[in-house]
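name: query_chain
kind: protein
chains: 1
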Amino acid sequence: MTKPDPVTLGKARSDIHRRFGNQTKRLHSNRYTEDVIGAHGEICFAEEFNLEVRPVLKHSGGDDGYDFDTPIGKIDVKTFQKPYNLLVKVSEIHGEAEFYVLGRYLELGRKVIFLGWATKAIMLKCPTKIFHPKSGILNHYLAANSLNLMSEYPMSELIIGKQGGLF
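structure:
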């Protein structure tokens, strides 16, 4: 398996969304920053759990709301520089993801630390808020310190799996 380059992957995904008119407003001056950080999260998660990063999708539908199809279910990785909350867009929460994982992107070393996870069912019950007026995006949110630990079931099954016991 060849490790994808997060900059190339993030830019390609951003350009596809832009081409089809479904790119959300960005908070950074560089329009690629958020997609590159997201790509870092996916690549680090794939490395951590011996999974494949999904390729750049060539259609306007995006990633169908998930990043990985695993033995425990479909997972969407959300990666931020300041991950105070796990954020899931109200407009995207009805996608195929069953689990959401929150990652913290560390500029130094270009790595991601996975802070925890929540199920779609839990996120649907969470309050909503627009965190950044500039983006206008309404998100379900759950505080990072309220997430399930990565070592808790069923996410723990991925940890077992990476050691050769599950898949």
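note: The first strand starts at residue 68 and ends at 70.
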